[in-house]
Amino acid sequence: MRTLKVNLEDRSYPIYIGSDVSLDNELYSKHISSKKIALITNEQIADLYLSEISQTLNAFDLKTLVLPEGETEKNLETVGKAVEFLSDNGIDRDSSIIAFGGGVVGDITGFVASSYMRGIKFLQVPTTLLAQVDSSVGGKTGVNINTGKNLIGSFYQPSAVIADTRYLNSLEPNRLSEGLAEVIKYGLIRDEDFFKWLSKNTNRILALEPEIMTHLIERCCQIKAEIVSEDEREGSIRAILNYGHTFGHAIESLTDYSVYTHGEAVSIGMVMAASMAERMGMLSQDDKTDITRLLESVNLPTKKPDLNSNDFLESMKRDKKVQDGEIRLILLESIGRAIISNNYPNEILMETILE
What we know:
The chain is of the alpha/beta class and 355 residues long. The protein contains 14 helices and eleven strands. The strands form four sheets. Strands 4-3-5-6 form a four-stranded parallel beta sheet, sandwiched between helices. A three-stranded mixed beta sheet has the order 1-2-9, covered by helices on one side. Helix 2 links the parallel strand 3 (36-42) and strand 4.
């Protein structure tokens, strides 16, 4: 087991990484102070693993809520159902909630935990690669509304993250690939050597070799923990974690969250951001080619869908990172070096959208 720490003073917490760590009941006991706990998961994970984790947690008075699968469930109606479930089952301020699933479950559970009784403890037990390397760490929670992704939410840190690499074996290929989009992002924004390591070890990653995956998750979590510890509420450097996301969120929104997974949309968004940086003379053509090649090698899309350019721009303007009506973009100066910019020619942005 590898253990990392997100350093946030009194909100600091550990990340446990390794095979079978989710079956260690002592890890839960370290971070749960009440006998009564709630577990929120989805139908797919419940079918595979609910019996197993329930047995691990048999020392607690466990109440379980099983939600339907999918990004379309990430809304205020689901939040209302979850809050009523907690209240009906006597979950109080001393209780804890466990998010057991992918990014959707984690985002919903975190938001519910942040608002129920003005905030109760929760743990993340992420079951997808995307959640293990990204959404479970850093305290961003939220749900979608019709006009945009994660427009309602909060910053609320978990008590612990328990990332069991064993769960990755049950992922469908497209779910593994969507997680790898976020993995590649970390190399692009912060660590060129990691990007090169990913390119060298693609086949071993796709084969889910345990040692390779543990190192991969650990390095991603290290990068994110460093950035979040420096800037918890995205006032500055944390924004680079959104590389490709402003373009990607627009793609998700304009396709009703039903055509692309989050990681697939981010993959396309990262290529669009690389194209824009190349047009501006910041990023070399070779770097852009290497980025596209690595994304495609892990079966991710890199071509923008045919969407109305004006709708695309308007969707980008609704992004949370917009300041005074200006879209802040994360752009690459080179692989491993990202900057935050709103100082770019609008015509180049439109050329990128129209490409």
